[in-house]
Amino acid sequence: MKQLFVHCTRNVTQSSLLEDGVLTEFSVERSEGTSLVGNIYLGRVVNVLPGMQAAFVDIGLPKNAFLYVDDVLHPHLDRQPKTKPSIAELLKPGDRRIVQIMKEPLGGKGARITTHYSLPGRCLVYMPHADYVGVSKKIEQEQERARLKGLAEELREAGEGLILRTSAEGESRESLARDLEGLRNVWRHISERGAAAEAPAELHRDFGLVQRTVRDVFKPDMEALIVDDERAFRDARAYLQQTAPHLEKRVKLHAESAPLYEHFGIKSQIDRAFQRRVALRSGGYLVFDHTEALTVVDVNTGKYTGATDLEETVFQTNLEAAAEIARLLRLRDIGGIVVVDFIDMTDDEHRRRVVERIEETMRQDRTKCQVVGWTRLGLLEITRKKTRADLMSYFYETCIACKGTGRTYVR
């Protein structure tokens, strides 16, 4: 059973996805600073760096955005030149370009931008210049994949690109056409504003957290979307009325006296999940440490002593840890490089099954993940696409005294 919860206050909006009562996704957005990923701007090229094959573009944010050469070439790989040209042949200082943020400013870095525009709808993603059709890999039945691809080819105009999302499965031609036409209208509006605006200028802002959650997360297999705010309730119903009327009645307004997250036990799960040390049911535990370059996870047996032999004890702990690590990477929205120090295993079959378990759990993650493999030191390397700031920054601030080292000064 899947349920989606949206909690709103004056300063913060939170969304949580529970699967069989277990928290698997969590998102936060502060009212004073909404997410920038997906926003589209008219930018002005400030500097071109051939040595980096990149350009810096002023889009009106405090730091100039970063545009890499691959994000300037045609979005269809078959339409790109075999020999990559210099960025200086494609862009010059002062050029105006419509660009889209694909990665938020993080730390001291500016936003990563692209000219490969994509506008997500409920059933499909519209790419005005991509010239290809794709179907979500999570739609596994070949007959349905072929049906959707055929419909997309019929509906798209010359040069347009479409990706059929998981939500498109089972949808009618009329539903897809309605979604596509709405996205075409958005792109027309962006193009018209871009032609008349002075750079830098914001041309399009993606939905806020409530509407994004309804669009991207609330699927037909979910039992309910429960919100505790009248405005969010109306916004969610209005969006579904236009895009998926059959799901509108599943949106519920929380009417209990107890706060939403306390009533459904979500707050306690959030508190446990974002600790540095996370307990496993068996008695083992995980330790998460974050550095600027990567995230390190250490697996320990703790109180778990097993019932047979050491190798089996270690294997069972690692197996449980693998699934929990995949869940917590998704829940905490940890991106970039992740290195896991599992307890040493001597059996190669056990190592293989641990990787299988973590990959199996990661298939539920909407963000692209990859298990790179074991290092020579016995560590497991994982990568997860990073587009937004780590959620840990919402819960914790770096101590101004120790700068995050966490040690006590002894006189």
Walk me through the structure.
The longest helix has 24 residues, at 173-196. The protein folds into three domains: 1-35 and 208-273, eRF1 domain 2 (Nucleotidyltransferase, domain 5, 2-Layer Sandwich); 40-116, OB fold (Dihydrolipoamide Acetyltransferase, E2P), CATH 2.40.50; 275-395, Aminopeptidase, CATH 3.40.630. The strands form four sheets. A six-stranded mixed sheet has the order 16-17-18-19-21-20, covered by helices on one side. Strands 3-2-1-14-15 form a five-stranded mixed sheet, with helices on both faces. A five-stranded mixed barrel has the order 4-5-6-8-7. Helix 4 packs parallel to helix 5 (230-243) and helix 8 (310-332) runs parallel beside helix 9. It has helices at residues 87-90, 142-155, 173-196, 209-216, 230-243, 260-263, 266-273, 310-332, 348-362, 392-395, and strands at 2-8, 12-19, 22-30, 40-49, 54-58, 65-68, 96-103, 112-114, 119-120, 124-127, 133-135, 161-164, 201-204, 224-227, 251-253, 277-279, 285-290, 294-300, 336-341, 369-374, 380-384. With 411 residues, it is of the alpha+beta class. This is Rne/Rng family ribonuclease. Pfam families: RNase_E_G. One of its GO terms (biological process) is rRNA processing.
What's the quick description here?
By secondary structure, this protein is α+β, with helices and mostly antiparallel strands.
The total number of structural domains is 3
Distance between the termini: 56 Å
Low-pLDDT windows of residues: none
Helix content: 25-40%
Helix/strand/pairing category: alpha+beta
Strand content: 25-35%
How does the major sheet shape up? 6 strands, mixed
Count of alpha and pi helical runs: 10
Summed over residues and divided by their number, the pLDDT gives a mean of 89
Which strand order does the major sheet show?
16-17-18-19-21-20
Keywords: Cell inner membrane, Cell membrane, Endonuclease, Hydrolase, Magnesium, Membrane, Metal-binding, Nuclease, RNA-binding
Domain S1 motif: 36-116
Protein name: Rne/Rng family ribonuclease
Organism: Cohnella rhizosphaerae
